[in-house]
Each structure stands twice: as C-alpha cells, then as structure tokens.
Write a structure and sequence with these properties.
By secondary structure, the chain is of the alpha/beta class. It contains ten helices and eight strands. Helix 4 (63-76) packs parallel to helix 5 (95-109) and helix 5 crosses helix 6 (123-131).
C-alpha cells in the first residue's frame, strides 16, 4: 500500500497539477474498498440520511448519527485522509458549539479533518476550530445548506442549471479567499461550473475540489461511492451512467437466492446441507 496521505501531500498535488481523488463513503466495507483503490480523501457526508436511510433532506441527520457513521468509515480506512461533515446545527449555533462538535469528531471518530458547509458565513468558527488543531475542509457554492439562499430547491441530484452563475465570480473568489484566510486547508466548491470554478482554483493557494457540479477545472473531484457504483434502487429502472450497476447485480443475486430456497437447493456460500436420504 502506498504511503499514507497527508494534507501536505494534497497541497503538493495542487502545486504540481496532479488531481486529488475524493469519494464519499458511509460504511466500513465501502471504506475499505475505496481505500484499497488508492483514493486520496474519504469524506463521510451528511447526505447519508438521504441516500442510505431514506430521509427527505440532509438536515434530518443528527450529530450522534454522524459520529457512528464516521467511526465505521475510519475503521475501514488506513491510507486516505478521512473527513466528516458537520450536520446542520453545531455551526449555526455558534463558535463554541462548532469547536465542541469538531473535538468530538476527532476524539470519538478519529477523523483527520472536519467539513463545514456554508463555512464562509462563520469565519470565526473556522478560525477557532483551526486554533484547536483540527483542520477544516470548507464547503461553499450552491450546497444543501445554502441552496435556498440562491433560490434553488434542494434535490439529491442537481442539474447543470444549478451551477453558480458567472455573474457571481467575484463573490465566489472573495468567499474562497475569506475561507483560506480563516485557516481552511481544503475547499469544496459545490456546483462550481467551468468558469467560476477555474477562477476560484487559481485565486487561492489551497486545493479546491468539487462534488456536485465539479469538473476538471478544479484541483480534484468528489463522488459518492454509492453513486459511482450504481448502488441505489433507482438504478434498477433507470440505468445510470456509472462505473457499475450494483443494484442490478444485487437484484439478480437475491432473486437467484430466493429461487434456491424455494426449490430446497443448497444456497451459494451457505452451510453445506447433506442430501436427503
């Protein structure tokens, strides 16, 4: 296995023009797999509630739930950096609550950095968490926690129409610089678009990566592991443009298992059953 990834290594990748590979993961097994694939950053996203648990909005996820998920992912990752999203609440409740939440994530889940959505609105919290010795991964742009501000209704899968308008280029550059000055070591520019995204990546010295709406104009990309492999049940009826269709493979496997049970046959991988005498 290659050397463990560090924040300094990510900075070198930006400086040398090498792209940073990030994935979002929510469980131990996927964490082990993506770490073995050699990704640089594993982000424990608060979208776990929407994409894995059937919530209607990521605001429903709690701090306690995020700690449990982050601990599972941390146990599965040996090489990559591990980040965890703040759920909606601790950051908005004030700097002291934000620092307490960050400390809890480090102490109880062993994460390497914490990701703050809408972080530019809370520069004091970014500075305070940084002073506490905890690296900050700051998210901005059109995000789940800022969508309404931009007149965009939250959707699990945004469209190209949700990109940050080019007219907001100066504002987004200023926001990115404000986050860098507050101490953020990594930025996640969501729905950046090729014009504004490229300008922001050039304007700051820290790496800028993107999840939804990211692209090659940034220093790296984030992608939900479950989305990359076609895990969602929706992939059964609307085959996605992904690297696999795990939902279809799973349906076929469980259908075959059910057929074996109903026919009183040996199930694959099960305890061997002696033939009837």
């Amino acid at each position: 296995m290659p050397d463990k990834v560090t924040l300094r290594a990510l900075q070198r990748m930006k400086d040398e023009g090498r792209k940073i590979v990030g994935v979002v993961a929510w469980d131990y097994q996927i964490a082990r797999i993506v770490d073995r694939a050699g990704v640089d950053l594993v982000s424990v996203g608060d979208t776990v509630g929407v994409n894995l648990w059937g919530h209607s909005h990521p605001f429903e996820v709690t701090m306690d739930e995020m700690v449990v998920v982050a601990r599972a992912v941390r146990r599965g990752v040996e090489r990559a950096l591990v980040s965890v999203d703040f759920p909606f609440g601790p950051l908005q409740q004030g700097t002291a609550d934000a620092v307490r939440a960050a400390v809890r994530f480090v102490k109880e889940a062993g994460v390497d950095l914490v990701k703050l959505d809408a972080a530019a609105d809370f520069p004091d919290a970014v500075e305070a968490i940084t002073r506490a010795g905890i690296p900050v991964f700051a998210q901005f742009g059109i995000t789940p926690q800022t969508a309404l501000r931009y007149g965009v209704e939250y959707r699990a899968v945004p469209s190209s129409a949700d990109q940050v308008p080019v007219a907001m280029l100066d504002a987004m550059v200023a926001e990115a610089k404000r986050l860098e000055e507050a101490g953020a070591v990594l930025l996640n520019f969501t729905n950046s678009g090729p014009v504004v995204g490229a300008a922001v990546a050039r304007a700051v010295s820290v790496p800028v990566i993107g999840g939804f709406g990211g692209g090659p104009w940034l220093d790296g990309r984030m992608r939900m592991a479950h989305a990359a492999i076609g895990y969602a049940a929706s992939s059964l009826d609307d085959p996605p443009e992904t690297y696999a269709n795990v939902a279809r493979i799973t349906l076929d496997a469980i259908t075959a298992y059910a057929a074996d049970v109903r026919a009183a046959r040996q199930v694959a991988g099960g305890v061997p059953v002696p033939p009837a005498t």
